[in-house]
Amino acid sequence: MMLMEQTQVAAAALPVAEFRDHVRLGTGFGDDGLQDGLLERVLRAAMVAVEARTGKVLIARDYLLAVGAWRDPGAQVLPVAPVRAITALSITDRLGAERVIPAGRYMLEPDMHRPRLVSAGFLLPQIPVAGQARIAFTAGMADAWDGLPADLGQAVMLLAAHYYEHRHETAVGGATMPFGVNALTERYRALRLFGGRV
Question: TM segments (predicted)?
Answer without folding.
Answer: none
